[in-house]
User: Fold this.
Amino acid sequence: MTMIEVLVALLLLSIGLLAMAGIQANSSRIQRTNEFRGAANELLQSFAEAVRANPSGAIAGNYNFNDTGTAEPARPATLCQDVAVACTAATIAQADLFQIRQAIRRRLPEGNLFATYVAPAPGVNPTTSMSVWVYWTAQTESGNAPDDALWAGLEDNCPAQVAQLTPRRICVMHTISL
Assistant:
């Protein structure tokens, strides 16, 4: 083997190793995103159970939430866990929103909730429902928010108010039938 052949072999080997490193980094990003999606789906299920347990609160719009800020949720006057406290549909909804937003903040980076009541429309949408999104900040392996083309389109499932936020958000949407 000549020196040129050895150099060509080393060049090909290094290109292959760099390609494998790139694939590894991409698969780590996908795995992390999927872990967050799984957590978002669990949180959405929990929220759906709370809303279905208080349909009058949902119909009254008490579960509507569209604050896209990242501030900690404010604790309501009561969490309606004490039987001695008389809670209305509105106070139950406030307590449910506080608890789910706390859980989202703990499990997802800069996570939040966006929820809106959808009134029935005869002939179009005969059922009463809520559209709910759980969203979080897209992150790279190093924890930084990405701004590259690899993450383009991940905000497609987001409501308009969330899709325009920077850094980019990833959304999981769920429709809750009441």
Remarks:
- The longest strand covers residues 129-137.
- The CA atoms of residues 80 and 87 lie 6 Å apart.
- The beta strands are 112-118, 129-137, 169-177.
